[in-house]
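Cont'd.
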Amino acid sequence: MSEIKFLEIPGYRWIPNGQSNFSGAVLDLFKALDGMFLRIADQAQAREFYFPPFIQAHELNKLDYFKSFPHLISFPVALDQHKAGNLEKFIDGPRCDDSGQVHLVEIDKVCDCLTPAACYHFYIHLQGQDLQEPIHLTTRAHCFRRELFYKPLQRQWSFNMREIVCLGPYDYVREFVKKFRDIVTEKLHKLNLGIEWDVATDPFFNPESNPKFIMQQLDPVKHEMIFNKELSIGSTNFHKDYFGENFGIKYQGEIAHSACIAFGLERWIFAIISRYGTNPAHWPLTEIQNV
Amino acid sequence: MKTEQEIKEVLRQWVLTKSKKVTDSELKFDTHLLETRILSSLHVMELILEVEKMKGTRFNLKNIKPGVFNSIDTIYSSFFGSPA
């Protein structure tokens, strides 16, 4: 597979702050892929949700998120309008310099985070509920993960993640993961993408001192779809009762178990273009729309 | 020097005092401790320290292999059993 010339992808524009613009053919590919993921979600009769881009920090704090992933998190900030003269000070200052850096003055309390993973919204949304039936849910969210460097379509600060989530009793959720991993594998095979499933851990900060990382090593619950032996384009994650316990979600009186299947849209586009080239005429759009 | 049975019983009692998710009669040497989250991740860190104390050595957590803390049997065979 030769190196991708990103400028040759019709409708694609890379923004060096770790984001991608799509239009034309590449936007059609984006929509077709998400349509395929939605059809997978339909097989589980998953209910679709839309969520806004912010998550309240106190909710993520219930998961110890700030200790586990301080290197990934991004915060929306705003200037403090309550402090007298603060906005004037900003206006009178350099505001934004030639390098593009904004010179902030006093900032308001930061109580929100930019969504780091699509499925968190569901556990927050469902917290305190006692489910009477297993449920399946899906959403596509703009996710934000700060990185030390960015690469077009592969490592972005902001990217799209489609997730299918199941909550219910242990055996049911475990079966969901197995069934849908098989379904996804079959679709990948039809698209001839050369994916392998591999055991994975989450990218914890100082992993060896984090009990959650040690637990993931000892009892692997996450598997990634590895494209071309190097890029994870999706994953399945059987959380067991982790989210149920932290958010008080029950299933018929017992702590609910959960699992998710996640697809990174930009990385899937990368995989398709790596495999089929930058010419949209060679992309398997019809296959994607029909598998 | 403790026998295999005694070491396993020490581990079993440790799990019973830490976890509220299993009873004395339910917890066997081959009961899966992680799959059904009888032990939480914090428990596992404590258990690693406990096993280190019993063994008198520190483990390199980087090299810790999946499965070794699955049950009291696997902990015994991974850390206390005679090398093959």
